[in-house]
Amino acid sequence: MQYVSLYFEFIKIQIVGIFQFKKAFTLGLIAQLASYGAEFFLLWIVIDRFNEINGWYSYEVLLLYAMNLCSYALASFFLASPSFRLSQMIKDGTFDEILTKPLNNFLYLICREFNSGYLSHLILSLVAMFIALANLNVSLNFFQTLFFIIVILSGSLIQGAALILISIPSFWVVENSMLKDVLFFQAKNFIRYPISIYPGIIQILLTFVIPYAFINFFPVQYFIQKNDFTFFSPVFQFLSPLVGVVLFILAYILWRIGINNYKSTGS
């Protein structure tokens, strides 16, 4: 419970900061909405121009996009700042302060570095999701709605695990921004579209090596009654929760290994 109360204390600090700088927060929110809105618009133009991509139509691709963005927003609230700032914190020695606290250093870090800037991502993804589901005439019953929420949270665990994993090399190699860009942003661009459009080796990589396909491609087919599993089993549409939990636990274990091998700048 101490972590829950600590988390809410940091959230209150964030809210106070927002009210202190309302204009800056609003401008940042608008800028993020415009940026991702433009990205979505370009994606829409591509799909609308060609009518469909490998049997996937515009609103189906929009749902893929929305689920990816929504899970990214939820994960980034807690893990984006720790992931992207870790190398700089290690370089300037401020990470040592995290280790002096009588708390789990991982939980303390993600609570302290909560980033409200991803609210725009969440808003845009929810709007896009609503539009896609409405135009696809998808009506979810109670259990399907519950599973949909679980899938979004599972996607957040996968994205969160990825954010943790790309930060871990910072314990050994401080300058690794290129690795982060390739393994996270560039690799995740593939799931803007159905992975069935890619060669088999890419599909395998996105399923078993960097399992981003479980964020949206596999589970979305359950909700829209699609059957585009290529050479994978239809069972994969239900595996996102398992993949998310296992991957996040693995990422945390590797984080602990990194901490145990960390050499302070003052040592």
For the biggest β-sheet, the strand order reads: 1-2
- Beta percentage is under 5%
- Unreliable spans are none
Helix content: over 70%
Count of extended strands: 2
* Integer average pLDDT: 83
End-to-end Cα distance: 34 Å
Structural Rg: 19 Å
Major beta sheet summary: 2 strands, antiparallel
Given helix and strand content, the structural type is mainly alpha
Instruction: Sketch the topology as an H/E string, one letter per element.
Output: HHEEHHHHHHHHH
Number of domains: 1
Shape: globular
Q: How many helices?
A: 11
Detailed description of the structure:
- The protein is an all-alpha fold.
- The protein has one domain.
- Helix content is 71%, strand content 1%.
- It is built from eleven helices and two strands.
- The protein has helices spanning 2-20, 22-50, 58-92, 95-99, 105-112, 119-135, 142-167, 177-188, 200-209, 217-223, 240-260, and strands spanning 52-53, 56-57.
- Strand 1 (52-53) and strand 2 form a beta hairpin.
- Helix 7 packs antiparallel against helix 8.
- It is globular.
- The model has no long low-confidence stretch (mean pLDDT 83).
